[in-house]
Amino acid sequence: MAVDLPPGLRVPSPPERELLEMFVVQAGLALSNAQQRERLARQLHFGEILREVAQSGSRVGLEAMLMSATEAINRGFDAVRTWVSCARDREGGPETSVAHPPYDARPPTCEPLRADLMVTAWPAGLVVPVALSDTGVPLLPTSPEKVRESLRESGAGQAVVTPVGNGQEMFGYLGVGLGEQRKALRRDELDAIAEIARELGRMVQSARLFETEQRLVSELRELDRYKGELIATISHELKTPLTTIIGHVELLEDREVGTRSVAAIRRNADRLDRLIQNLLDYAQVRERRGFVRRRVDTVELADSAIELLSQQAESGGVQVAFDRPPVAVDVSGDAEEIGTVLNNLIGNAVKYTRSGGRVVVDFSATDDWVHVTVADTGIGISPVDRAHLFSTFHRSSNPEALSLPGTGLGLAISRRIAEEHGGRIEVESMLGRGSTFRLVLPAMAT
């Protein structure tokens, strides 16, 4: 701080010097506060730019996300043009380049610039200044002319470029073109641009992961649709000749040919018929979008299932007990499909119970739910198999269970039907001790 000499060149008195010193201190404090306020204001400004860029990450699609981000960057740094270019991803996705203000045509890409930044700036996260007047840029050994050409096209006199990436992977670069008369960017501005580039890298990675996930989901859905069509087509093609075979076997049985071959043909034809019917049921349940609900008496359906399986239970030495309720227990749904579930649950109990064992079918109901319980003293299910019990085509790892014929579709179909009726299937089992399956369905509203 300096002051003019007083009139007459009189030396200030001690009190006057003390006052001057106080003024100097106050002026220094005011200057320091002003500088600090300016720094805080700039930090707030850069933080606001970064916030706007981060909010761009909520946009759907990488291109829309980057267009919103470049607009925020361009406005925040009062730039002539801001651009971002990203190379193809590992899955072979498209190259993405956007700019604000937009180019008349597709924004140009610069592979030499990307290659230079990969080697020189990416390892240390550097921001590289470039001006039209530069004769050479050490950090851009092969691409400075390409950058200057971009500046001329944008009407900018200078720019900064910096890599965009995340983790160990560099995706592309960010460029901010500035007016020729503008002062060179200060250190805090370069640091802010570097942080924005890092945020862009995180956004690009998230967007590409999301796009990859969507692509995989779409492919899986298409495969699942194809699987369903394949199952339905093969099942229908097999059903016609099999029906003919079974019809001719019945004719041979009526004529009492009495050969063991006829019995073997009949047994295996029936087994194949059950397989195809399961495949058809599975395809039908998968493709159906709805059904007509009617009043269904689950007691009658259980009684029919037990009667249907009585011969199998008798030949296997399995006792089936049915604690039949004295009144109807009604639910709302499709009688044929609920019957399929009960046939599967009771049929499995009979099939996987050893000779001398017992299967018990029991009913209970509340105002809201109907419970049909099928308990057996069979071979049981291990914890490992229970985890995959309702998976399509799953067969038990138990050798005893594998020795019995099955498709691995019955429980998958049953659970799908139960869920479509607003219910569920519960399982309790202990290996070697037996299993309890419980079909739970919403009770019929009265």
What layout of secondary structure does this protein have?
Elements: H1 14-55, H2 62-76, E1 81-86, E2 96-100, H3 111-120, E3 128-131, H4 144-154, E4 158-166, E5 169-178, H5 187-254, H6 260-287, E6 294-297, H7 298-308, H8 310-315, E7 319-323, E8 330-333, H9 335-351, E9 358-365, E10 369-376, H10 383-386, H11 399-402, H12 410-420, E11 424-430, E12 434-442
Parallel strand pairs: 7-9
Antiparallel strand pairs: 1-2, 1-5, 3-4, 4-5, 6-8, 9-10, 10-12, 11-12
List keywords for this structure.
five-stranded mixed beta sheet; 12 helices; Heat Shock Protein 90; five-stranded antiparallel beta sheet; Helix Hairpins; alpha+beta; 446 residues; Beta-Lactamase
Please state roughly what percent of the residues sit in beta strands, choosing from under 5%, 5-15%, 15-25%, 25-35%, 35-45% or over 45%: 15-25%
Count of domain modules: 3
CATH topology descriptor of the largest domain = Beta-Lactamase
The separation of the N and C termini measures 95 Å
Structural shape: elongated
Q: Which architecture of the largest domain per CATH?
A: 2-Layer Sandwich
What is the name of the CATH superfamily of the largest domain?
A: GAF domain
- Strand arrangement within the widest β-sheet reads 2-1-5-4-3
Provide the gyration radius in Å.
Answer: 39 Å
Low-confidence stretches: none
What is the chain-wise order of helices and strands?
HHEEHEHEEHHEHHEEHEEHHHEE
Helix content: 40-55%
CATH class of the largest domain: Alpha Beta
Number of helices: 12
Q: Kindly report the average pLDDT value.
A: 82
Largest sheet: 5 strands, antiparallel
